[in-house]
Automatic annotation (TrEMBL):
Signal peptide: none annotated. This is GCN5-related N-acetyltransferase. One of its GO terms (molecular function) is acyltransferase activity, transferring groups other than amino-acyl groups. It comes from the Bacteria. It comes from Hyella patelloides LEGE 07179. The keyword Transferase applies. The lineage of its organism: Bacteria, Bacillati, Cyanobacteriota, Cyanophyceae, Pleurocapsales. Residues 1-89 form the N-acetyltransferase domain. InterPro entries: Acyl_CoA_acyltransferase, GNAT_dom. It holds the Pfam family Acetyltransf_7. Keywords: Transferase.
């Protein structure tokens, strides 16, 4: 029997100088609410080897990541390697009035150390 495999979720860690970004975390709509996003988030946190940051759109996603220990930070608190990338988001946030939230995973909560 030839069954096709389907991707139901993905996420990645992007490397920057002195930091990493948890990004592109997506679960297909039909599979949401089953804990897949949380499992993937925890897996990526465990894989991180540098201070971990993310940006998300809206309170709902910020609440999701807060559940896993992420804390809201300001653009000024970002490491230099992320300021440029996330700075572009801040321009978009201002121009289009989008609720972009910047977050950091506290090193004191790191699960891989």
């Amino acid at each position: 029997m030839n069954k096709k495999k389907k991707t139901i979720a993905c996420g990645q860690l992007r490397n920057f100088t002195a930091a990493q970004e948890l990004g592109s975390l997506v679960v297909v709509p039909q599979q949401r609410g089953q804990g897949i996003g949380g499992y993937l988030t925890l897996h990526l946190i465990k894989q991180a080897t540098k201070p971990l940051y993310l940006e998300c759109l809206g309170e709902k996603l910020a609440d999701f990541y807060s559940h896993y220990g992420f804390e809201v930070v300001t653009w000024q608190e970002l490491p230099p390697g992320l300021k440029f990338k996330f700075g572009l988001s801040q321009v978009v946030k201002t121009v289009f009035r989008l609720p972009v939230v910047l977050m950091r995973y506290p090193e004191s909560h790191s699960v891989n150390k």
